[in-house]
Structures are given as structure tokens and as C-alpha cells.
TrEMBL record:
<dbReference type="InterPro" id="IPR050109">
    <property type="entry name" value="HTH-type_TetR-like_transc_reg"/>
</dbReference>
<feature type="domain" description="HTH tetR-type">
    <location>
        <begin position="17"/>
        <end position="77"/>
    </location>
</feature>
<feature type="DNA-binding region" description="H-T-H motif">
    <location>
        <begin position="40"/>
        <end position="59"/>
    </location>
</feature>
<dbReference type="InterPro" id="IPR001647">
    <property type="entry name" value="HTH_TetR"/>
</dbReference>
<dbReference type="InterPro" id="IPR036271">
    <property type="entry name" value="Tet_transcr_reg_TetR-rel_C_sf"/>
</dbReference>
<protein>
    <submittedName>
        <fullName>Tetracycline repressor protein class A from transposon 1721</fullName>
    </submittedName>
</protein>
<dbReference type="Pfam" id="PF02909">
    <property type="entry name" value="TetR_C_1"/>
</dbReference>
<dbReference type="InterPro" id="IPR004111">
    <property type="entry name" value="Repressor_TetR_C"/>
</dbReference>
<keyword id="KW-0805">Transcription regulation</keyword>
<keyword id="KW-0804">Transcription</keyword>
<feature type="region of interest" description="Disordered">
    <location>
        <begin position="231"/>
        <end position="264"/>
    </location>
</feature>
<dbReference type="InterPro" id="IPR023772">
    <property type="entry name" value="DNA-bd_HTH_TetR-type_CS"/>
</dbReference>
<dbReference type="Pfam" id="PF00440">
    <property type="entry name" value="TetR_N"/>
</dbReference>
<dbReference type="GO" id="GO:0000976">
    <property type="term" value="F:transcription cis-regulatory region binding"/>
</dbReference>
<keyword id="KW-0238">DNA-binding</keyword>
<dbReference type="GO" id="GO:0003700">
    <property type="term" value="F:DNA-binding transcription factor activity"/>
</dbReference>
<feature type="compositionally biased region" description="Basic residues">
    <location>
        <begin position="240"/>
        <end position="264"/>
    </location>
</feature>
Length: 264
């Protein structure tokens, strides 16, 4: 039988011909294919066409590489989700900001894995994240909120966005590992006899506990409504009291002075 020819080997790059920037870019490319969890130094070396020692020269372990990738992910995230002042209404600004955060994570699952699930960042990007929160607090406090109310309101928006995104991402990752995997809301047994209300809601397209767009909108509206009430209450309490003019009593007429005649 004719002997099978071995496939041509991929040419190795010369040692020192790669830099950290190119390694990080290649790691993102590979993570898009295999995921962050399955990323490894040897596989990355083959993807870049370099020996694994060339990667270890800059990143001593995988965790160091993931930290560098997280810093890059946060830079991309901050650019895509920065609070803008396209509207004069604080509510519209915060609404758009929340949807930008959610959209950035849903359209790029690698950002979600690195920023939310792994959540390890360098000092520079940790400071960038703090600056974004600072701007949001300043924006809310200009509307009259106290620091505490502004902090709680923005934290609630962040938690709502991240919670919905992480739940959806974890479900997608479980489904990738097991095609038959279902989310919690998909495991509910709903029957007309035992749970008529759930059955009626399901017939109208409602899925209990699902991190879908409809539930996200409902939760976000509740947070914004509450924040709006806090702003209105603050405006009411800060209104200056109306001044009432005190009615002055008519001045008493003084008796005319008579000049004493000098004795002649």
C-alpha cells in the first residue's frame, strides 16, 4: 500500500519574534473558538506558531495571561458602555447606560467570562472602573440625590444588569457541555390542574425567572421608578419655605410738638 504522507508542519516563528500584545490578541482569538476555560498555553503556542516557552517568557502562568486579557476586556467594555450625555433627562441616560452594559456582555461572551465570572483585574483598570462609577454618582447627585441614594440606585442597576447576564451566560455554558441541559426556569413542571396561573402565564409567553429582555426591562423600570421617587422627595424637602409678609400695625400719630414760648 502506498505510504501516507504526513501533513506539512506549521513553520515555527523565530524566538523573540512575538511580543505580549500579539500573544494577548491571539489569546482572544483562540478563546472565541474554545472558550476561556479551555484556553491553555500549549494550544495558544500552536495557534500563534511559536514554542510555548516564548509565551512563558512574558506570562509565567495561565493566570497571568488571563489577568492581562481581563485588563484588555475592561478597556473594551468601558469604551462601549461609557455614560453619555446625549439626553438632558437623567432617566434616559441611565436607561441607555444599562442597556449598553447588558449589550456589551451579551454580544461578546468572552467579556462576561473575564470581567464578571473570573473578575480579576489589574490596578489600572480597577481605577478605570471606579472612575466610571464616580461619573454615574455625580450625574445622579446633580439631580438632587444624596450620596447614599445615588450609590444605592446605581449599584442596583449594575447588579440587575450583571445578574441577568451571568445567569444567561452560565446557562449557555452548561448547554454547550450538555446539549440536554436546562436552566432552572426550564425545569419547572407546569400543568393546568396544579398550577393554573403559571400555565396561563406560560400561554402568554411568560417564562418565570428567565433572564430575558422582558424581565430585564421590568426590573430596570422598577429601579428607575424608585430612583425618580427619591429625586422628587428630595426636591420637595429642599424647597424653601414661602415667606409671608407680616402686616404692620399702623404707626401711632405723635402729638404735634409745641414750642414753649420764652418768657419775655
Amino acid at each position: 500500500m502506498p505510504r501516507k504522507e504526513n501533513p506539512p508542519k506549521r513553520e515555527r516563528r523565530e524566538r523573540g519574534s512575538i511580543d505580549p500584545e500579539e500573544i494577548i490578541n491571539g489569546a482572544f482569538e483562540l478563546a472565541e473558538e474554545v472558550g476561556v476555560d479551555n484556553l491553555s498555553m500549549p494550544v495558544l503556542g500552536r495557534h500563534l506558531g511559536v514554542g510555548v516557552t516564548s509565551i512563558y517568557w512574558y506570562f509565567r502562568k495561565k493566570d497571568d495571561l488571563l489577568s492581562a486579557m481581563t485588563d484588555r476586556a475592561i478597556e473594551r467594555y468601558n469604551l462601549a458602555t461609557a455614560l453619555t450625555y446625549s439626553s438632558d433627562d437623567w432617566r434616559e441616560r441611565l436607561y441607555e447606560h444599562a442597556h449598553a452594559m447588558r449589550g456589551a456582555f451579551l454580544t461578546n461572551p468572552i467579556l462576561c467570562d473575564l470581567i464578571l465570572i473570573r473578575s480579576s483585574r489589574g490596578p489600572r483598570n480597577a481605577q478605570l472602573g471606579a472612575s466610571e462609577i464616580e461619573h454615574a454618582l455625580e450625574d445622579l447627585m446633580r439631580e438632587g440625590l444624596s450620596l447614599e441614594d445615588a450609590y444605592d440606585s446605581y449599584s442596583a442597576v449594575q447588579l440587575h444588569v450583571r445578574g441577568s447576564v451571568v445567569l444567561e451566560r452560565l446557562y449557555d455554558k452548561n448547554k454547550a457541555e450538555d446539549a440536554g441541559a436546562q436552566a432552572h426556569h426550564g425545569n419547572l413542571i407546569i400543568t393546568t390542574a396544579q398550577t393554573p396561573l403559571l400555565a396561563e402565564a406560560a400561554s402568554k409567553g411568560r417564562v418565570g425567572g428567565a433572564p430575558d429582555e422582558q424581565i430585564f426591562e421590568y426590573g430596570l423600570t422598577c429601579i428607575l421608578d424608585h430612583t425618580s421617587r427619591l429625586i422628587d422627595e428630595q426636591k420637595q424637602t429642599s424647597k424653601p419655605a414661602k415667606r409671608t409678609r407680616a402686616t404692620k400695625a399702623p404707626a401711632k400719630k405723635s402729638a404735634p410738638r409745641t414750642r414753649a414760648k420764652s418768657a419775655s
